[in-house]
Amino acid sequence: AIQWGHNNDGFFGPSGVGIADADIDAIEAWEITTGQTVSPEGVNEVVIAIIDSGVDFNNPDLTANAWHNPREIPDNQIDDDGNGLVDDYFGYDFADLDSDPTDTQGHGTHVAGTVGAVGNNQLFVTGVNWNTKIMALRAGDAGLSSAALLGSYNYIVEQKLLGVNIVASNNSYGGSPASGIDRFAISATIDAGILFVAASGNDAANNDVTQFFPSGYDLDGILAVGASDSAEQVAIFSSNGAASVDIHAPGVDILSTRPPQLGFVDFLDGTSMASPHAAGVAGLLGDLAPGASPIDIKAWIMAGTDVKPVFAGLSVT
Ligand code: CA
Ligand code: CA
């Protein structure tokens, strides 16, 4: 299957071959749930926050799964919900400080499609969640700004406390030095009830020795994700760590959504692509177990991971 991360039939991969069942067992999961139980907009919707280069909801495979701020009227130049941000309807652009978090770089749109491209619609690709709500927080293009990241963390805490059912944030970036301020802000998102799913980095490093942030902060509510390939090997670029990386997920030759001007879909490699597979699974679990804590969801993901000898010593599971 071309989206081998969902279902690896052994016939697709970096060398043209794969290992059957080296995947996230999405077909099996979809027999249980394909995402949020259908509910009126704004009520108990499972929301995944994508903190990245933005999301282009003009890709028709993402449009229906865009989160809408239930307290904000779009494009009326009024801060209807009084949170200090005018027209934050899809999320917010904390890099440019405006209401349009549309992605032009392409990274965040790819990540978002892995989490939640609309399923079963005869278009392009399928997300781990067929139905979910994607909140777009734009923090820059390639290099995300520290201030924009802090704004994004604060935003998801505020929305969660208002009752928006944000189950996880996806954080496919990193490499900045350790920061007490960042750690504190991330800790607040976890304390609010949001699992922090983060990429382990693409430096082929041992993160137990060369620390990588934010995935490496010592917080129980962070799920640090390295990348595997379709031949059931660790990706050659993936940073790993027996203590500092929790799991590996598909991150090589990952087909997902792109902004329309970049061609709607493409393959990308990276731990950035692995992390949203895990964040997507968190969304499915959030649908099955409403109100579950980030610690519980992380534990369930780790308990459900296939333990393979080739990954021994490279991650917790
Ligand atoms: Ca507002
Ligand atoms: Ca408004």
How would you briefly describe this protein structure?
It is built from six helices and nine strands, in the order αββαβαβαβββββαα.
Explain this structure to me?
Helices cover about 20% and strands about 15% of the residues. The protein starts with about 25 loop residues before the first helix and ends in a 14-residue tail after the last helix. Helix 2 runs parallel beside helix 5, helix 3 runs parallel beside helix 4 and helix 5 crosses helix 6. The strands form two sheets. A seven-stranded parallel sheet has the order 2-3-1-4-5-6-7, with helices on both faces. A two-stranded antiparallel sheet has the order 8-9. It is an alpha/beta fold. The model has no long low-confidence stretch (mean pLDDT about 95). The chain has six helices and nine strands; from the N terminus they run H-E-E-H-E-H-E-H-E-E-E-E-E-H-H. One calcium ion binds next to loops.
Characteristics:
single chain, 317 residues, alpha/beta, two-stranded antiparallel sheet, binds calcium ion
